[in-house]
């Protein structure tokens, strides 16, 4: 496992991280047993993962509560990233949201505190000033953002050190390569990738549209009529998507490498990427990703992977918003 330092801090996070949204269960994830979640945390630690990402919006704080329970005796060696919702970006609400997250997480500090989404109705300067106060008090150690487009990221970077930008990035979702990734790299901010396997599409487990759960098929890769959870009006690119899936499976067979492993190894080769969130729900799912921790792929395989996924990149374009045709990114 490789580790990367967060900005000028002394904090180092693992190249793979445990994304803890599934701990919340609910409509998107289904039933989730707390003991399975805790087992996933423990197995992650055994395999070198030290970074755990959550948010109060994941099950109305449920994910934070379960993670806090799992790390209560392992806090000093673990790195916690959580987020402040965009609705709580006024100074008063930031402080309240931080205190509530600390309570749910059963800790007195948050290693990486991220603005979950920008709020263009509130002055970013006021939000940053309060975050700086929380940092000075030791309640948060570093400041990051999530889902920040080029302009928003550039603006906040002028006000404070932003150590990370958490973004959707995978072989089927390469929109950040147009503008956002170069901006992050230029500012020395690491990219944390969520949905690194495109919600399971890059594993090859889904053979046709009908196999894909509603929570996955709500993205802009799919037609607006495919999922009852859909918020966009795009027609999607379903035929192109499954053609690419078949080609990726064929490529992985040619090199005797699992398609999920190949996809994650491709992602960790991309410039600017410092960590990838793996959403394991139990010990077994953590172990399924272990091969990706240890393996690398050649430049030749990476180039072929690019060629296969380039048509989807062109179709999606530079809008990184997975859920909305009119981007919420700026």
Set down the secondary structure blueprint.
Blueprint: E1 3-5, E2 12-14, E3 16-19, H1 26-29, H2 34-46, E4 51-53, H3 62-71, E5 79-84, H4 91-105, E6 110-115, H5 124-136, E7 140-146, H6 150-157, E8 164-168, H7 180-186, E9 190-194, H8 214-217, H9 238-254, H10 259-268, E10 273-278, H11 283-288, H12 290-294, H13 299-316
Parallel strand pairs: 3-4, 3-10, 4-5, 5-6, 6-7, 7-8, 8-9, 9-10
Antiparallel strand pairs: 1-2
Describe what you observe in this structure.
- This protein has 330 residues and is of the alpha/beta class.
- It has a single domain, classed as NADP-dependent oxidoreductase domain (TIM Barrel, Alpha-Beta Barrel).
- It has helices at residues 26-29, 34-46, 62-71, 91-105, 124-136, 150-157, 180-186, 214-217, 238-254, 259-268, 283-288, 290-294, 299-316, and strands at 3-5, 12-14, 16-19, 51-53, 79-84, 110-115, 140-146, 164-168, 190-194, 273-278.
- The strands form 2 sheets. It has an 8-stranded parallel beta barrel with strand order 3-4-5-6-7-8-9-10, surrounded by 5 helices. It has a two-stranded antiparallel ribbon with strand order 1-2.
- The model has no long low-confidence stretch (mean pLDDT 95).
């Amino acid at each position: 496992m490789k580790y990367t330092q967060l900005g000028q801090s002394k904090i180092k996070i693992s190249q793979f991280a445990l994304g803890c949204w599934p701990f919340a269960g609910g409509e998107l994830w289904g039933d989730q047993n707390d003991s399975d979640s805790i087992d996933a945390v423990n197995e992650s630690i055994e395999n070198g993962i030290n970074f755990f990402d959550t948010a109060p919006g994941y099950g109305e704080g449920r994910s934070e509560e379960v993670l806090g329970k799992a790390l209560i005796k392992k806090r000093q060696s673990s790195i916690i990233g959580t987020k402040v919702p965009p609705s709580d970006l006024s100074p008063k609400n930031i402080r309240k949201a931080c205190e509530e997250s600390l309570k749910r997480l059963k800790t007195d500090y948050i290693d990486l505190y991220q603005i979950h989404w920008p709020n263009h109705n509130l002055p970013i300067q006021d939000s940053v000033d309060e975050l700086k106060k929380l940092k000075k008090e030791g309640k948060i150690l570093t400041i990051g953002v999530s889902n920040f487009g080029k302009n928003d990221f550039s603006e906040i970077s002028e006000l404070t050190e932003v150590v990370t930008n958490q973004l959707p990035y995978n072989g089927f979702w390469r929109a950040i390569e147009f503008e956002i990734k170069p901006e992050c790299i230029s500012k020395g901010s690491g990219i944390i990738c969520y949905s690194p396997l495109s919600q399971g599409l890059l594993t090859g487990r889904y053979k046709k549209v009908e196999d894909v759960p509603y929570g996955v098929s709500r993205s802009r890769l799919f037609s607006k009529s495919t999922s009852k959870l859909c918020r966009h009006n795009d027609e999607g690119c379903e035929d192109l998507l499954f053609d690419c899936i078949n080609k990726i499976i064929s490529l992985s067979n040619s090199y005797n490498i699992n398609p999920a492993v190949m996809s994650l190894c491709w992602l960790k080769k991309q410039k600017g990427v410092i960590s990838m969130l793996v959403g394991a729900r139990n010990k077994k799912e953590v172990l399924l990703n272990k091969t990706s921790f240890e393996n690398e792929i050649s430049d030749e395989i990476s180039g072929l992977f690019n060629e296969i996924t380039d048509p989807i990149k062109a179709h999606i374009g530079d809008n990184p918003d997975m859920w909305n045709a009119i981007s919420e990114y700026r």
